[in-house]
Amino acid sequence: KLHLDYADSILNRRNSIYGIMDRLYNSYNGVKNADALRFIEKTYGRANKSKYISYRLGRNKLMLLQGEWLNTPLRPTVTTINVDARVKKLDEADTMRGALASREELTKLKEAGVDVLEGMELPEGDPDEVWNSMSFKDKNEHVMQVILDNGLTELDMKFKFAKNLLDLEIVSGCYGKIDMDEEGNVDYLKIDPRDAIFDEIEGDDFIERSPVKGARYRMTVSEVNRKYKLTKEQKIMLKDAEGQINSTSAGSRRPRMYQINGDMCVDVIHIEWISAIPTYYKLSPKTKAQLEIDDSTPYYRIQMDAKEYEENKDAYDKMVEKGKLMGIQTEWAEDIREAVRIAGIIDLDLGRKKFQARRVDTPNKVIDMSYVGYLFNTVDGMRISLQQVVENFDAAFDAVMYLILKELNIARGKVLGLNRAGLPQGRTTKEIMYDVLNDGFIDFDSSADGNESGRDMKLDDLINVYDLGVSSSFQQLIMLKNDIRMTLDLITGINENRQGDIAASSTAMNAQVAITASKNITTPLMYGMSKYVERVCMKMCEYYKLSY
Fold it and tell me: Are 85 and 137 in contact (CB under 8 A)?
């Protein structure tokens, strides 16, 4: 319960960070703050005719990086990292190499009853030559490679990693979980960074030192009942809580129950943490005869049943006092535990996590918890994401484009005006316009009755032309729009030259410089993503070992 309380507090205290994340995801999708647009879309309280459009200029930049990732082959290579296995692997490889070179001599010795290879069979025939000449660890690597390649394809990991990369670009972090059910099916769950539960520690970019890891899941009530074995009382509690839709419970800053597309959903928090379990050994004294055979230690070390010892600890202590035992040794081993909190009111202790992978070099250590994450570009406790860099340019570009459309909406070409006071007597407006447009000639008598008297009439007094074209600021708006795009290319380094699409007039040197500069600026992001993929694939291998 204390671990679940701590996980809950992590979600509560990170609320401000989640608010920033929400804003960044909204700006990526082109969702603007309505209050911030009022001063643009209205003039003196009345809505302008031009419509404000979100062009999502920065989104194209981020999608270009995703496209590069999807074009990159995903082919991780399985290699041996365990020290003992590597030594044994080399020994067996050397033995097999020497045996193949001395096949005839070894065969004769075996027929004479001397088996130098101690049962190891020499490969026979070409089809089995390569496989049989491999050491046991080489074979394991080969099989694991096939399993991993198959899993990456079946689970569509490239697509899931592309979504992780998008999270990195938007909020400078990504998160996921390697999951395995009771039937041994391995899966990778991509988790929204806003639902991630972990303790952020300075310098821990891959969240490997966090004492607690977990995530918040949104599940329907029926899904909760299917997945977890709730008691009758707990089901009643869950049913009663349905009346508290979108309400914030005491001590929390977020609702635990809400409706999504008409379905009743609840917050389900799942966490894991590394605990420690004891292993007890009784030190039984050796007899004199036993000491003569082996005097390296004065006792035998015999493992005890933990539950039996803890229930009868006083009896064993008395045996030590009487000298029947030389002592009790306790050794500790890491152990992963897990728990679940449903709707903030139901706590389930799931106990020891099933399918725990342990290290061969140090059996008392587990590999790691099933959650994995990456925090990109943390400097002095802060992370500035790529989306955070481009969102202001996004807003500026949209505002400029709105003003450009507003100018175009005003423009209506030229207007011809006719002064009725100067209309010749006996002539109509249509007759005057006909002569102007068809003959290009018009006559009038300024002295005639019906015209303005007292002054000479000029054609400018009769007909006026007005140009209702764009204002003088239109060209500046076009230049400003282009400047925003160029500045965004310069700051992000993500420009149209990344894929090698250089104009025909560009020289080879210009093309190389443009592509190199553009690629290098995003190299840290891509390198960090590749290390995250490496860690995910490593954990997948560990789970596939247990599964197969």
Answer: yes
High-pLDDT (> 90) share of the chain, %: 24
Burial of 246 (0-12, 13-18, 19+ CB in 10 A): exposed
Nearest CA among 156, 7, 164 for reference residue 532: 164
Q: What's the pLDDT at 88? A: 61
Which string of DSSP letters, residue by residue, matches 259-299?
EETTEEEEEEEEEEEEEEEEEEEEEEEPPHHHHHH--SSSE
Beta strands 257-260 and 299-303 are unpaired
The SS3 call for residue 207 is: coil
Q: How far apart are the first and last CA of the chain?
A: 34
What are the DSSP calls for 400-431, one per residue? HHHHHHHHHHH---EEEEE-GGGPPTT--HHH
Among 267, 167, 216, residue whose Cα is nearest residue 371: 216
The pTM of this model reads 0.73
CA distances for 80 relative to 86, 132, 136, 139, 148, angstroms: 6, 19, 11, 11, 14
For the chain, the maximum distance between any two Cα atoms, rounded to a whole number of angstroms, is 150
Tokens of 352: 């020891």
Q: What is the DSSP string of 24-36?
A: HHHHHHT---HHH
Q: What is the pLDDT of residues 192-230, one digit of tens each?
A: 999 999 999 988 999 999 999 999 999 988 889 888 999
Joined together, the tokens standing for residue 365 give 């250590």
Q: How many CA atoms lie within 13 A of 413 on its CB side?
A: 2
Residue 439, pLDDT > 90, answer no
Question: Is there a contact between 95 and 117 (Cβ–Cβ < 8 Å)?
Answer: yes
User: Mean pLDDT, the chain, as a whole number?
Assistant: 80
Confidence grade of residue 509 (pLDDT, cut at 50, 70, 90): very low
Q: Amino acid letter at 17?
A: I
- Whether the Cβ atoms of residue 255 and residue 246 lie closer than 8 Å to each other: yes
369 secondary structure, DSSP code? -
Residue 61 C-alpha from the chain's centroid: 17
Number of H helices, E strands in the chain: 20, 16
**Is pLDDT at 282 greater than 70 in this prediction?**
yes
